Amino acid sequence: MIRKRIILMTQGLLLLVFLAVGSYILSMFYEYANTTFKENSIWRARYAQSLVLAQLPVNPTESQAEEIVHNLGAELNLDLALLRNMPAKSVQDIRKEDALQVSSKIVNDNTKGKNIVVELPLPNTFGLRTEVSMQPVEEEYSRMRTSIILFFLVLMLLGAFLVGKLVAKFTAPLEELSNAVEKMGQGDLALRLESKDNDEYGVIAYAFNNLSERLTDQILEVERERRKLELILDNMDNAVAIIKADGSIVDCNKHFSEVFGKKVVLSKSTLAEAVVSNGLTDFMRRCLAGDKPMEINFTTMLAGNKKVFQVFGAPLTEAFQSVPTSVLTVFHDITALQAIYEKQADFVSNASHELATPLTTIRGFSETLLDEETGKDGTLRDKFLHIILDECSRMQALIKDLLQMAKLDSVEYRQSIEIETFSVAGTLENVYEKLLPQAKKRDLHLHVQYLAEPVLISANKDWLQQILVNLTENALKYTPEDGDIELSYACDDRFAVFTVHNTGEGINEEENKKIFERFYRVEKARTRRAGGTGLGLSIVKFIVEMFGGTIRVVSKPGQGVSFIFTIPRANGETLLR
Question: Which portions of this protein are annotated as coiled-coil regions (predicted)?
Fold first, then answer.
């Protein structure tokens, strides 16, 4: 607080002044006391010198001088001592010396403390030494210092008290204003200052109250607009978010969190965390760099489902900024429209191609049979009719698979499929009995390996059988004569793992990546001889993933092909996808 700072500064200044004044008084007193005591000690030494000179005989001996000095010291209560080997002087010369020319010095003694020592000459080579203790001076100085400290301490306490009162009086309006500003910053706009004076504080109080009223009106207006905008955004069927240049999400509507299925913490969550898409991040950068609205379509996976969005981005420039710092993004879900478009395009393209081939064959051989010469040849006529029959069967199988794919593409149909718990062994036995005649007809060996313990899975029995039939029929088509086809299964804690393996040529890595695509065939010439619609494996993959499993292909050229897929075991909840 400003009051504390002013009080501390004032007390600091008073302390410095008191220290300076006290130190000066003490130093002056100490210097005066030392000078006075030194002069007094010199005059006492001169007086003792005069007494010694009066009692000394002419040409005294050392013992005579020693005795006189000792007796005189006891009589005057002075510490006198006889000095020897001094410069020889006569009594007349000694009496002529000025007292101001006498030198003295201060000697520190461990036992006696500070002493003033004065040395004076005596006749012949003798001298007189006086030593006076300075203890009285030191004691008086100590008493004086204590008195001054106590005096200044009392003055300082009194000054601090008076300064505190004065500062409190003059800073009270400033503190009131400071507290009011702090509360305003915390959102209390109802606070008003009262001032009856027309001084500077009165002017500030009036300006503060006026500012509070204007801010209150503006904030209420902004809050009404914000609430209105919030209601509009939360009731939109589009996801809306404001995203900064660093990818952090500044704000978003409720639909944004619902669509992307994650709890968005504003200013902490990033675009990469909420929406996994490198293309969308690049779109944001381009939108900011170009400083103009842009649109993009992007695809992502949300809760295991493919989602397609049309994204509109408009750069936003904050106040007092010259370049945009964030992007207003609107996510319009076009998944359904995109799915319909893709399915229609794929169906028209692939179905047209697949139907065109047998129709062309049927048309060509039919026109040939209408020729009179060809129609008379019974052998050739039968051959052409068998070809036409084969192409009709192929068209029938193609139409059957197309209808099956259409059913599986329907969400309503998938939701109507019943999930049940059943044993794997029974389904494998049915597939074996159904396809064994075809295997024997082609001189192939069909085997099924069963586990010792029964394995229960959660799926639809008919659709599981369809998976195994499609994979086994595919193996029958591409396995060379006298080859082997083996159906087996294993299990872990969560899944039953099925394997359909056949010997033969195998497929390369490039074909392995595309084998589950609709209407894709391995080596078209070889596929034409073997038959097939190109939809069987796509149907298999769709059904496996619908039950929550996975499927993959393991193959190398010349080593046959293994189709391995998983189905959840009957020890947990299975949801159709």
Answer: 212-239
Three-state secondary structure call for residue 522: coil
- Co-location of 472 and 527 in the same domain: yes
Backbone angles phi, psi at 382, to 5 degrees: -65, -40
Q: Whole-prediction pTM value? A: 0.42
Taking only the tens place, the pLDDT of each residue in 215-232 is 888 888 888 888 888 888
How many angstroms separate the CA atoms of 199 and 201, rounded? 5
Is 126 in contact with 91 (CB distance < 8 Å)? no
How many Å apart are CA 120 and CA 129, to the nearest integer?
6
* Alpha-carbon span 153 to 156, nearest angstrom: 5
Cα 222 from Cα 560, distance rounded (Å): 72
Question: HSE-up of 471 (CA within 13 Å, CB side)?
Answer: 31
CATH at residue 295: 3.30.450.20
The domain containing residue 552 runs over which residues?
Answer: 419-568
CA distances from 131 to 159, 237, 405 (A): 46, 110, 128
What sign results for the dihedral spanned by CA atoms 127, 133, 136, 141?
Answer: positive
Residue with tokens 């020889």: 88
Distance between the two ends of the chain, CA-based, in angstroms? 66
Q: How many domains does the chain have?
A: 4
